[in-house]
Amino acid sequence: MKKTAQVAIAASVLALIAGGFLLFHLIRESEPFKAERSDFIGAWAGPGGARLTLHEDGTAIGDRVPSRFSGSASAVSATLSGSGTWSMGTRYTSLANQKIFVTLRTGPEQEATVEVGAYGQGAKNGLYISVSADTEEMFVFKKVPQ
User: Looking at the predicted structure, is the pLDDT value of residue 113 above 90?
Assistant: First the structure.
């Protein structure tokens, strides 16, 4: 076999291995984010002083939690602050990220609910609020020590 053919075969084999490795990681990264109740518990902080604390007993405290955006995650147009509750959302399909619903009392007889998702398996990359249904942009909270 000529040297050129051997080099071409070796290069093809390496390309197939690299392509398979890349494809495996792309598929794994596109899996929906699964999380358990315990993964959400703790204190979380986001840009602009946003804070969200989720307790094991289902209570929640929020400060400057975004509830509306003007086009991007950095353009928060309304926030919520107060205490309330949180609960796990039902994953109706294995293709959906795990979500929770945080309901905060924002005033006398006023409350609002925000949908928050796990960002990464077990919420390892934080929690997120979707900016809109039209974009994949997210407002991200990172876990902070209590």
Answer: yes
